[in-house]
From TrEMBL:
Gene Ontology CC entries for this record: extracellular space
Biological processes annotated in GO: proteolysis
Keywords: Hydrolase, Metalloprotease, Protease, Signal, Zinc
Name of the protein in question: Peptidase M14 domain-containing protein
Amino acid sequence: MVRPSAIRRYIGVIAALLLPASLLVSLTAQGNEPELADDTVAEYTPPGHLEYPEVVAITVPDRTALDALVDTGVDLAEHVEDTAAGLRVEAIVTPSEQDWLRSAGFDVGEPLLTEDDFTALQEERQETVAEIEAAEERAMQSGDDLRVQRAAWFRNHDETFVQFEVWSEAGSASADVTLEVSLDAGPGTEIGDGTTFTLSRFVDAGHYMFHRTNLPRQESPVPSRARITSMLDGEVIGEVETDVTEFLDGEYPSGPGAPKEWGDLATGFIDHYVDATEATATIEELAAEHPELAEIVELPNETNGYRRKAQALFQPPSPTFTIDPPSSAAGAYDVVGASFGGTTPFRGTPGDVVLVDDGTDNPTEGCSPLVDFEAGSIALIDRGSCPFVTKVRHAQEAGAVAAVVANNVPGDPFAMGGNAPEVTIPAGMVSLDDGNTIKAGLPAAGTLRRPDLDPHRVVVESLAWGHEGGNDISVEMADPGEPSQPLKVDVDGDDIDVSLATDADGAITSTAAEVVDAINAEAGELVEAYTFRGDDGDGVVYPCTADECYGEPGTPHLSDFLSAPDDVSREPFTVKALRIGKQRDGSNVGVLLYSQEHAREWVTPLVALETAERLLRNYESNETIRKLVDNLDVFIVPSVNPDGSHYSIHDFALQRRNMTNHCPRDGVSDPLGRNSWGVDLNRNFRVGNIHQGFSGASTSCTSDVFAGPEPLSEPEARNETWLAEEHPNIRFAMNTHTHGGYFMWAPGAYRLPTRDGLERPSFGVENYFYEASDIILNRIKEHRGTSVWSSRVGPISDVLYSAAGNSGDDHFYENDIFAWSFEAGSPLWTGNGWSSVGFTPPFEEGREEAMEFSHGWIGILEVAYRYSRDWVPPRSNLSPGAGTYEGPVELAFDFSEPVDIYYTLDGSRPTYDSPRIEFAGPRQGQEPITITETTTIKWFAVDVAGNTQNYYKPDGPGRNYRRATIVIDD
Ligand SMILES: [Zn+2]
């Protein structure tokens, strides 16, 4: 903050030395008389040597000071930031200019960017340009390497769409490279008979990923072939042709345990959005009804509960200019206070409202001293022609008790800027419309009320939970109605009466800080009082009851502001899982299906309830369902976050997090902040979290991705890890969210700027995830034809964003579970674009989303069942195989099912410590092995169930691995 003396000082400098003569003349002509200070400093003179400018932040207290800074003529960035310390602007100034500005009283910060920084930037740019040019040169000479990652068409309801992802070597280095896709018009037609379009260059967290279609493109007819052309400077530098294959074609893999038609399946067990109390009651009823197939598992960590302390916020009414009856303008008008002038008393400054006359041609602008103004009135002045401080000073000099300026252009009023310590009356602005209404209602009396609430605010909070007595406490801040009274707090049962202190004139003098201390001293058994968000609390307290200030309307009591009916318990909630399976002793493969980490995702508990009922009610009649229930151990948690669920259903629909308030007393812990408390449970886990430097969470207690004070701080998150660790037979997990239509897995987070930090799944595991997605997403599609997009299937951090500390990563990396995440609720095709469905779609749509993703959950069980039947050794073949080749050979593997392949090139026996086949990059195919001299390659394949090719035992002595000799004949 710049001290007032400093402000006066530099204004003096500027007026004397720096204002252009024309501006000085015009200000004088308008009646503004700049006050010239005596202690001026010398005009700026550049030094006798070359200086390099630096970027510095300069903070000024208000617009007038900013104008003064602008008038110095220094180089300022076109951006002003409103900060707590004042207006912050960046200047590009030399060290001697900085010294000069400081001597003129400006608050000049330390350099943000120096000559070294600029030199480094220039060098970095030069290097990048050189790299791009070298890459372009290489591409021009030897062509672009193009790798087609996705060339897919799919049906969504009745329409056909295509999606492409193509990695370009030249395009990875240069944005000048463009990729164009040309389609045929179906089998038997030529490429080019269909449409042609350009792909976007997809860069994530500063890293080139690939080129892609941003959204699925509607295409008709269905293409069968495509050519991708890579272009640089109008020349073709690469070209590749590819089949366009159907994504989610409804075909299921064959083999033991493979999915079949479901046959007649009873569905449709949901009819409204449910809160966690209802969802829990439903699974308890199901368990009671089917004791031979299901039981309730109580999770050990109770939630904090759908409960809060009761609160009230005592504050003056909002700033207004009120006009009294019987004027036609009677009513309250919004006022925005000025940056200068006296503070408005909280109960307001009353007076007759008088439209000013300054005796000029524009008499109501008040740019000259006022004539015939009755002292003690409120001056109403039109904006225009001279500075705001001039108008208000003239009003004050004429005896006005307050000044209201009417805007002269339409729109909202704004804070009048200016610096004028001699102005002590309060001032504010009303809109043009309101100003006209008030003028039409004159003569009238009115009151201007104070705009700045925070110093006057007192928060009172019960020690007891609202439902345990907090809601019964009443608090009143009373005006004693007599002069010279002391501040008194009387406690009678649950009633706290605060009698505010008054001065000899009967005006209230108790400040917020004094009232806080008095309440805590006298009523500390019942409540705690505190000032607003750490404010000093030196404002006078306004007399009112809780509901008159800010509380539950219609009651003088404190309130927990919770509106769920009484059958929603206010006690800590025991989260329950429904365990379904013929044998629930840990001997079968376990599957953990959980919903509603995020409270507002109302569709997700319905996915859980629909699936639970399908499994239990179809057991007798449906062979597929019976097979799943007989052979799997299924844990269904309809609502991980019951407190948030209750709050979202009954109070604040967009609640994402749990209800636990981690904000400090001097932070956002008052009732105005109650919708921004809680921990994002899907950021509260141990792996890849913000405390380890991963991206995609926050340490702010009011952020919607608040990670909590530490990993697993929240009971809801600990319940999830307990389930997984207490039941080691759990091999699969699904973390169900909305919305967007995604099927995702690890890694779910990365560090910046490297965009890594968590190990990617192995080649075999990731291929297994893609195979599983084929089963699960085809099942989803069977319900009403909704296709999840191929671009939304993959690792969370590749297809959505980095989500530091999510539960899927915890299950995958900590407990070796095949852990997936759904975003149910795919976008809907409107005929000419995609429309998002939102968190709380109309139930009609929400029901369909729950039905189709329940299909997906059963698809997961089919995948798990197939896994439990997988005793078949995988097969793999080298391509090309053993033989004699001229020159280097690139080797890859074909395989019968998703496998990891371990290999050696040095003749040794392959083991789990040997090199492993990996992906060439995210969303790419396998990285080939390049052989340049005669080599015998030895390898074995292992599937995700642990079966090895030929039953080879990598840790035994056997020699039944695969081998092939590649002879290079130079
Ligand atoms: Zn979510």
